[in-house]
Amino acid sequence: MKCPYCAHLESKVVDSRPSDEGASIRRRRECLACHKRFTTYETMESLPLVVIKKDGSRQTFDKSKLLNGMIRACEKRPVAFATLEAIANEIEQTLQNEMSREIPSDRIGALVMDKLKGVDEVAYVRFASVYRQFKDISTFMAELSKLLEEK
């Protein structure tokens, strides 16, 4: 690490502790040439996820959009906001762990539907109706029938 005072390239770490709720590490360093101390922060570099929309356009993944969609599906339902936040975090982590940086929107929708199905069936059907773009009552009934068969 280059010293900000004398530009010497070697320093030693004097103190190291977590910062930003574990998202980064704060390090106190001492220059081996001028013996002055300075602070550095180390953070994990994460590559942005890109969502491939149905029309072929690409957009940066935004967890708040995912969360807003689930909030709308759970409107007036007994689902805690903390539960939806946890689901959004799980989905984001699942996508980050995949090898691909480009994720089709239908993959994200399938993950959301899978999680909502276990939390609230009404919210699941609401989300599915928007996500799958039901054209008529028969496709809607087919989805409900699948849900009933699984029970």
Automatic annotation (TrEMBL):
Q: Which terms are listed as keywords in the entry?
A: ATP-binding, DNA-binding, Metal-binding, Nucleotide-binding, Repressor, Transcription, Transcription regulation, Zinc, Zinc-finger
Zinc finger unnamed: from-to: 3-34
Is DNA-binding tagged as a keyword? yes
Q: What does this protein do?
A: Negatively regulates transcription of bacterial ribonucleotide reductase nrd genes and operons by binding to NrdR-boxes.
Q: InterPro entries from the entry? A: ATP-cone_dom, NrdR-like_N, RNR_NrdR-like
Cofactor: record remark: Binds 1 zinc ion.
* Superkingdom in the source lineage: Bacteria
**Record domain ATP-cone: where:** 49-139
What's the protein name?
Answer: Transcriptional repressor NrdR
The GO terms describing molecular function are: ATP binding; DNA binding; zinc ion binding
Q: Which cofactor does it need?
A: Zn(2+)
Say which family it is in: Belongs to the NrdR family.
**Listed GO biological process terms:** negative regulation of DNA-templated transcription
Q: Does the keyword Oxidoreductase apply?
A: no
Pfam families per record: ATP-cone, Zn_ribbon_NrdR
